[in-house]
From TrEMBL:
<dbReference type="InterPro" id="IPR010061">
    <property type="entry name" value="MeMal-semiAld_DH"/>
</dbReference>
<dbReference type="InterPro" id="IPR016162">
    <property type="entry name" value="Ald_DH_N"/>
</dbReference>
<feature type="domain" description="Aldehyde dehydrogenase">
    <location>
        <begin position="35"/>
        <end position="499"/>
    </location>
</feature>
<dbReference type="Pfam" id="PF00171">
    <property type="entry name" value="Aldedh"/>
</dbReference>
<dbReference type="GO" id="GO:0006210">
    <property type="term" value="P:thymine catabolic process"/>
</dbReference>
<dbReference type="GO" id="GO:0004491">
    <property type="term" value="F:methylmalonate-semialdehyde dehydrogenase (acylating, NAD) activity"/>
</dbReference>
<keyword id="KW-0496">Mitochondrion</keyword>
<dbReference type="InterPro" id="IPR016161">
    <property type="entry name" value="Ald_DH/histidinol_DH"/>
</dbReference>
<protein>
    <recommendedName>
        <fullName>Probable methylmalonate-semialdehyde/malonate-semialdehyde dehydrogenase [acylating], mitochondrial</fullName>
        <ecNumber>1.2.1.27</ecNumber>
    </recommendedName>
</protein>
<comment type="similarity">
    <text>Belongs to the aldehyde dehydrogenase family.</text>
</comment>
<comment type="subunit">
    <text>Homotetramer.</text>
</comment>
<keyword id="KW-0520">NAD</keyword>
<dbReference type="GO" id="GO:0006574">
    <property type="term" value="P:L-valine catabolic process"/>
</dbReference>
<keyword id="KW-0560">Oxidoreductase</keyword>
<dbReference type="InterPro" id="IPR016160">
    <property type="entry name" value="Ald_DH_CS_CYS"/>
</dbReference>
<comment type="function">
    <text>Probable malonate and methylmalonate semialdehyde dehydrogenase involved in the catabolism of valine, thymine, and compounds catabolized by way of beta-alanine, including uracil and cytidine.</text>
</comment>
<dbReference type="InterPro" id="IPR015590">
    <property type="entry name" value="Aldehyde_DH_dom"/>
</dbReference>
Amino acid sequence: SLFRLATAEVRNILKRSYNTSNVAPTVKMFIDGKFVDSTTKEWIDLHDPATNEVVTRVPKCTNDEMEAAVESSKRAFKTWSQTSILTRQQVMLRLQQIIRANMSELAKNITKEQGKTHVDAEGDVLRGLQVVEHCCGITSLQMGETMPNIAKDMDTYSYTLPLGVTAGITPFNFPAMIPLWMFPVAITCGNTSIIKPSERDPGATLLLMEMLTEAGCPPGVVNVIHGAHDSVNFICDHPDIRAISFVGSDQAGKYIYERGCKNGKRVQSNMGAKNHGVVMADANKNATLNQLAGAAFGAAGQRCMALSTAIFVGEARAWIPELVERAAKLRVGPGHMPGVDVGPVISPQAKERILSLVQSGVDEGAKLILDGRNVKVEKFEKGNFVGPTILTDVLPSMKCYKEEIFGPVLVCLSAETLDNAIEIINKNPYGNGTAIFTTNGATARKFVNEIDVGQVGVNVPIPVPLPMFSFTGSRGSFWGSEHFYGKQGIKFYTQTKTVTQLWRDTDVSHTQAAVSMPT
Ligand code: NAD
């Protein structure tokens, strides 16, 4: 029961897979239902972004270890794909209870490895949990189609069947949510799944494996391997892996899409973004400015749906000084500290990149009206902190506009009219998300109709759809045909078998063989 799962007993189980004590431990693989040490000689140090101290070391798994994961997945597929759909549903029902009861434990691990604030880390878990909850409805979601009497005594029906072994490659910015976009959908459809979490924060994935085991999921149904490029290449090339789900940067996403597709796999690839918020002068000023600041600087801007670009239309430009005031009030610090709004960015390299993009804006003529580059956080001087930063007078030709900054930096553009704003957004190669802030329904409607972006918010700054829909980024932000979760997620992880059957009491049909197509 939920009560039993929330007890100390489960908390102890959780601690076993991943040791968060001060002695730098190593991260284990999860193969065939067991947490195993890698025998590799190559390790990646994982640093706490708030201190840059080494928290743990992540193995670059050996080829044999990755092969063992595939073997385990293949073996498990034989039985798992034949279990009743109710059995798979039960695993999801239990998993959702366990995750809910242990949200805070997961969030603590996320803050330690990834840096985001504890409350935000709980949001990371919750948004993944909602996918698990959606999977609990698999009994309706995986139904096929039927059509009786398509000819005399003949019926056609289709089954929606699993593919086999699937794989997921995840980014650092949502260590719980994104693995949960992948393996729950894959396995409730009857597939097995190999997850290669981000080498920068794999802890949440391993905690989820403890929970999945506790939920009664058999060994081999999900395996976890670690590494960087070599493990990605292994997944792209392995003939027994049928489908790859990827979320991360453009560079990796395009590469994985091309390499995976070339090897005949199904690939869905969610990539980078540059999300614009259009501020109309008739918007609710107070709500809009709060939403802009939250969506630009929350999670230190390291969300693929962060509103990293604001377009102020006409008179709305006069609100910028007030936006600066609100942004300047946000508290920068380590994610575990109560009251902190903006945690560190993932690495010193990420910080350097962010600062250099800000500088490029200044060099190209933008105005730096809020400068978070030299923010100091007492007792955490070594952390990768960047304070909220705002650049105005930015033009679409500038590097700080063209590149995804992925930090707490808001670039502001101006437009004379809504048409001008729409034109700017539609010319941008990315299509992940966008939002308009207005109190005028006709303005909102025009924006929704004319904007060429896959996820649109009207007075909603980060319009990520709940899992009964799909995550529908478009253009440069997504390569593939079926999106993550929702009906499209089920479609991605399944194939259709269509059966046409003829059952007749007596054979009255033909006296001789028919060699031409029926007319
Ligand atoms: P990343 O591409 O560096 O890493 C993602 C995964 O790819 C990791 O598992 C990593 O090991 C692997 N990888 C990295 N570089 C590779 C390469 N050159 N070849 C093969 N594999 C490689 O991404 P990240 O920095 O962890 O995540 C941030 C990025 O992810 C941002 O661009 C963000 O917009 C994007 N993102 C997109 C979405 C979305 O849904 N569109 C969601 C979250 C994050």
